Every structure is written in C-alpha cells, then in structure tokens.
Amino acid sequence: MDALFDSTERGLFDLPEDWQRGRRIILGELRDRSIWFIKLRWFVPIGIAVGTFISPYLGIDLASPGVLYGVALLVLFYNALFYRWRHRLPVVVTSKQRQAIRSFTRWQVSCDYAAMFLLIHFTGGITSPLIFFFIFHIIFASILLRPRSSYGFAALVILGVSFIALAENQGWMTHHPVVVDGHASTIYEHPVRIFIQLCFFSASVLITAASTTVIMTMLRRRINTLVDLSRMIDSLNRRLSGLFSMVQAIGRERDLDRVLSITTAELAKIGEVMGTSIKLMADDGVSLAVKATHGEVTRVLEGMRIELSRSPVSQRVMNGEPFVVGDIVDSKNFQLADRLRGVGVNSVLFVPLTVEGRNIGILGAYCSKSDRFSEDDVQFYRLAAALAAIAIDNALAYEAIERLGKERSFFMMRVAHNLRAPIAAMTSMLDVVLNEYIGPLNNDQKEQLARMRRRASGMVTMVNELLLLTESEKAVRERAFTLVNLTDLIGRVYRTFMDEAVERKTALKLTIDDDLPAVEGDPDALSQLLENLISNALKYTPVGGSIKVEAYPSNGGSVRIQVSDNGIGIPKDALPNLFNEFYRADNARRHEATGTGLGLAIVQRIVQRHGGQIHVESEEGLGSLFAVTLPRKFQGGMNDQVNSENGGNQEPDDAT
Amino acid sequence: MDSHPLVLVVDDDRDIRQSLKIILENNGYRVEAAADGKQAMKLLDTITPNIIILDVMMTTDTEGFDLAHDLRARPGCEETPIIMLTSFLDKVRDEGPDQYQHIMGQQWPAKWIFEKPIEPERLLAKLKAILED
Q1: Which of B11, B17, B22, B27 to mutate to test the interface with A (most CBs of A within 10 A)?
Q2: Which of A180, A495, A539, A628 has the maximal Cβ count within 10 Å?
Q3: Scanning every residue of chain B, which has its alpha carbon at the shortest distance from the alpha carbon of A419?
Q4: Hey, is the C-beta of A457 within 8 angstroms of any chain B C-beta?
Q5: What is the pLDDT of residues A616-634, one digit of tens each?
Q6: How many domains are contained in chain A?
Q7: Closest CA to A278 of A270, B38, A552, A265
Q8: What percent of chain A lies above the pLDDT cut of 70?
Q9: Contacts from A138-143 at CB under 8 Å and sequence distance 24+?
Q10: Do A93 and A215 belong together in one domain?
C-alpha cells in the first residue's frame, strides 16, 4: 500500500485529483479522524462547564461542582496538548508512522475514558445519565482503531461502571448523588436495581460493540478492495504509458537490431521481470533464432537456434497460443529448464509475435518468482507483442529492401567492371594503333580510329555514371560525412577545367565569397557535383561564350553554389525532365552528339544526399543557371525539392 | 640511370599487357610482362625492374594489392615504385584503404593508382616523372 505513495512515476493518463485524495483518505483515515476528534473535544469542557453552571437553576443539586469544573479544565488541558501534537503527525503514511498515529489515538481514547469515569463518579455513579455517552465512544473506538478493539473497550466500560457501582454501594468510595428538586435516586439502596441497571447497560454496550464491529469489518474490506483496485489501475496506467513510449521509440527506428533491443529492454522494465527475449522465424522456415535478449537470460539464450520440430512449446506458441510456466522445474516439456534455473529463472511466459495474422516469432518474459505470470500478464504481453511485431515486421521489410539495394549495387559493380575491362583493353589497343606504333595510318584511318577512341571513352563515362546512380542509399549513408572546405574544393575542380575552357575559347570565371563557411558532406560527391555542372556548362556553351562559377553564403547559414552560362539554354518543355536519367533535351542532342544524360541525375542525387536544393533558371538561346543550396549541417531528412522554372526568378522555399 | 629503364607489367588481360608493352617499348622502355602474381614473382628472380605496373583484380579481387604487399617485403624490391591500374577505381577508393589496411599495414604500398583505361600520354608522363625523381 505504501508503495502507492512512494511512486513518483506518472502514468499515461492523468488520474483525477479526487482519485488521489480518495486513496489518501482511506490510508490517512486514522490521522484525519483523530484530528477531527480533537476539534469535537473542544465542546466537551464547554458542555461540562455550562451543564454544571446551569444545573442549580434547573433545581439540580450537584454534589461537587468544583470537581466537575476541574474535569472540564483537565479535558481542556489534554486536548490542547493533543492539538499541539497533531502538527507532528505525518500526512504521508509509512508503517512506522502509522504506529505513531495509532498511539496518538490510544492516548486520546485513554484520556477520554479516564475523564468519563471521573465525570460518572461525580455525577451519581450508576445513576448518572452520562454512562450512555460510552455508546458513542465505543462506536468511535471501532472506527478509529481496529474494529475488534471495540469489544475490549466495551469490557473496560462494563468493568469500570460495575466497579464504580460496587464501590459506591459498598461505601469504598463516596457516592455523589445528583439531587433533583430535593429527591436523590435511591438505587444504591436496592442492589437488584443496580444489577438490572448494569445488565441493561452492559447489553447495550456489547450490542453496540458487536454491530459496529460487523459494519466496520465490512467497510474495511470494501476499502481494501478499493485500494487494490486503485493499485491495479495505477499499475495498468504505468504499463500503458511504458508501452506507449516503447511504441514511440521503435516506431522511429528502421534498424532491426535497434528495434529488438529497445523492445526487450523496455518490456523487461515495464513488466518488471528479470529478462525478456525475442525469437524470430529464421529464413529456413523450420527454426527460430534468438535475435535479442535482455537481462541475465542473455547468458543462456544468446545466439541460440531452436528447431521447431524439436520444441513442442515453440510450436504451440507459433500456432498462436500463449504459454506460461509457473515453475520451470515442474515442467517436463520445457527444454532449457535447468540452464534457465541456473540464472535464477523460475517462471516463464511466451506469447506469439503476430502481424496481420502471421506469427513471425516469439516474445518471452522470464521472472525469478514462481507463478509470476497471471492472466492479466498474458494479456499485457500479447498486446505488447502485437505492437512490437508491427515495428519488427517493418524493420524486416526495410532490411529486405536494403539488402535488395545492396545486391543490385553489387550486381551493377560487377557489370560495370566486366564492361569496363574490355573497353579498357579496346582503348589501349586503339592507342597502340593510333600512335602508329605498329605501322603508319592514313588520315582517314586516323580520323575513324580517333572517333572510335572517343566513343569508347564515352562508354567508360557512362558505366561510371551508372555506378554512381546505383549506389544503395545505405552505402551512401555509411560513407562518412566530413567538414568540407568548399573554397578549396571548388578551386580544385575549377582548375581542372581551365585547359578545356582555354581550348574552347570560353571565359571561365570563378568568384568565391571570402566568408564561405565549410559544409558537412562527402567531398568526392561534391567534387562530382561541381564537375558535372561545369562540364555541362562548357559542353553547351558555344565557342567564345562565358561561364561564371560563384559560391557565397546564403540565408539560414546555407551555402549557394551557382554555375551560369550564356550557352544554348534549356527549352521550356525540357525542364520538367531535366533530372531524369538518360534524358537529354533536343537542342542538347543537336549541339553535342555524345552525352549520357546521367550527369544532372547524379547532381540531383548528390544534392538530395546532402539535404540541399537545386534550382534551375534557363531560357533557350540565352543560357542557363544552376544553383545548388547546401545546408551547413546535414539534417538527415530527405526534404529534397527540385525547382525548375523557365526564365522565372522564384527562389525555392528557404531551407533552414 | 639506365637509358632504357625496365618496366614489369602485371595484368591478367593479355590485350592490355600487349598494348602496354608496345606503347612502352616505343617510348624507350624495356618491358617484361606477367599474367599473375605467381608469374611476376618468378620473373623477379631473374630481373630487377625500375618500375612495376600492377593490375588490382586478377585471379582474385585483391591480387594486385597482395602482390604489392609481398613486393614490399621482397629483398631488392622494397623501394621499387609501383603504379596500380584498375578498372574499378570506385571500389578501390571506397573499400580499398580500410579493407586492405590489415594486409598492408599503415603504408599504402602503391604510390599511384589510376583508372583504366589510362591515356598513353598520362602514363608515359607519370613514368618519366617517377624515374626522374
């Protein structure tokens, strides 16, 4: 019960404020009632004093009013003491503190009984009407203390009152009669009447004790049920909240191993068990492989493979039936019992991991307590397994796609190599002939062979570009991004084109802002990007034209690299297809026969990988402008956008 | 320096071997050729080349690297300049340094690596530069 108050962890749902207060009243009852009693008791001395004061006016003659005023003062005094003590009572209850509250209550009850006996003695003993006040004292005792304690108090009351009656009757104590209109009760002269009076008084007290005990016992039971319920709802709430955060965490992950390790760790924490495991159906379809474990059980289960045909338990679970073992020693059909016991496991629970009706594996939970897993736990783990299974299935699908991409890229590498080797040999042999090492050539032969040589070089370029395009996303991601000094990189690429520009009588101008920041990226890819843009500009700018390469900081801390020319430009209808693989605009084909149509596709890929944007402006016959904006820091998102406008000047949405 | 430096060409492609031999011989080099690492090692018992040109992928994907590594340990060849040729430069660039580090130690044994096909002018210029160094 105490754990309820100690828990600071909050559940998924905010339980209403009254809910919390309700629990506190149930547990803090003793304290609250005791304090309520102190308040009530302030009226007691007032009542005694007022009663004593007005009784002469009502024709009632009290034997010793001074003593009664004294009792009033006594009650006032001890109630003041309790009133001060009340502040030290704890609000939050631990078992030790509950003891303190109980003794506080006992002191109050003892003082009250002492005061009562005094009052009864000085107001006529057995003839005092005050004896009936004991009835509500007994009721309070059973409310405040344990229900059964009212029997003890009833006995105490009966004994006390009987003793007073006997002592006064026998003259051991002075009788202080209450004289009304000159008549005092003569009960002490008739022992039988005393006896009858005592009998009926005792019967009233005992019946009160018995009935309040029955009622209070029933009430307490109800209260305990409520507390249990509240604890259950609380733990359910916490489990749900744990599940929720687990689902959130694995929903974000695409990597299977991460999904599995988060799931096992979280479920062990939420389910409060010593270990968890996830087994997944192997590719062979006949065995289960332990893919992830958490806790001590790792020592037993790690890397294990279970043949379905040899494990009836696994077969059952894979058929959709949960499996619970309360004590693994007793279970005959459980293979790993001894080894699991070795790490302290006593009870085990298995539920299937089910997605869309398929069982893809088994989720296991292990606990050191025997018979730990209830029907509720089975329900909980089934729910958890269903949620985890979705994420696992997604990660598996993603893995398959990655594998496919990798296979494709590997296949392309092989193809490229096998294509490039003969082309390399061919060009090498052409070089031998072209250089007339094996005999002179006439001009026509030379011209034809030189063309062959160029076409062969074109093939090599195409193979290289194809390779770049087929690299799998993962391979690219794994290639580490570093901080790239763009000023150096652009300068280097620019210099490699200087000769060609001179050859083509094209003015190639470079302007780099002094404050150009470094960006995070793949230097090889960025060089490739720039090479493709500049070589395109050179290719499609007729002799005598001019090309400008510019780089400067752009808004939001990004960098803008711009290559512009006054070449043949891009026709309006070609713009939407500009970045498609193998696409070449008609005027480009007419202008330059060779060309793969892969250059801009590669540029776009590289821009995307760097989380940047590319922007094209062009008008046929006037020239083109390609502007690439790269963020300084790669954000990981693929918010790539390609804006192509014809003659427009609209900027793409700012990438911050 | 010998006026006719000796070049050892190791490549499993007969056409490449032959055309490189012709190109180099026409430019004042003496050329010995081998088709794989084993042949090359055997040849090296009898000759001491001034420079070695190695293909990367021969019998195995890494034979050129392995051979370069072995050559570094072979008496008389420790300092011989090595030029590597490959038609798979991407693969070498992406996987080479890391993957072969353990074979070659921290020192990349080949100083120069070129993608095939290489223009004869570039190769000749490089050879000249290396030998004059």
Answers
A1: B22
A2: A628
A3: B87
A4: yes
A5: 999 888 999 999 999 988 7
A6: 4
A7: A265
A8: 88
A9: A138/A205, A138/A208, A138/A209, A138/A212, A139/A208, A139/A212, A140/A37, A140/A109, A141/A109, A142/A209, A142/A212, A142/A213, A142/A216, A143/A33, A143/A212, A143/A216
A10: yes
pTM: 0.54
| A238: confidence class by pLDDT, cuts 50, 70, 90 | confident
CATH number at residue A271: 3.30.450.40
By the 8 A CB rule, do B126 and B112 touch? yes
pLDDT at B2: 56
Best mutation target, B12, B19, B86, to test chain A (most A CBs within 10 A): B19
pLDDT category of residue A17 using cuts at 50, 70 and 90: low
B14, B15, B84: which to substitute to probe chain A, counting the most A Cβ within 10 Å?
B15
Between positions 27 and 56 of B, the ones with CB within 8 A of A are none
Mean pLDDT split into 10-residue runs, chain B, 133 residues = 84 91 94 92 92 84 80 85 77 52 50 79 90 82
Residues A456 and A526 both lie in one domain: no
- CA quadruple A571, A573, A579, A584: dihedral sign: negative
| Overall fold of domain B6-119 | Rossmann fold (3.40.50)
Residue-wise DSSP of A257-283: HHHHHHHHHHHHHHHT-SEEEEEEE-T
Q: How many CB pairs under 8 A join A and B?
A: 62
Q: For residue A479, list chain B residues with Cβ-Cβ distance below 8 A.
A: 94
Question: 3-state SS string over A45-57?
Answer: HHHHHHHHHHHHH
pLDDT digits (tens, 9 = 90+) for A595-614: 777 788 888 888 888 888 99
Average pLDDT (A177-188) is 78
Are residues A54 and A199 located together in one domain of the fold?
yes
Domain span at residue A107 reads 2-233
Among residues B84, B70, B83, B78, the alpha carbon closest in space to that of B41 is found at: B70
CB contact under 8 A, A417 and B57: yes
- Which residues are CB-contacts of A318 (< 8 A; sequence separation ≥ 6)? A281, A288, A308, A352, A359, A362
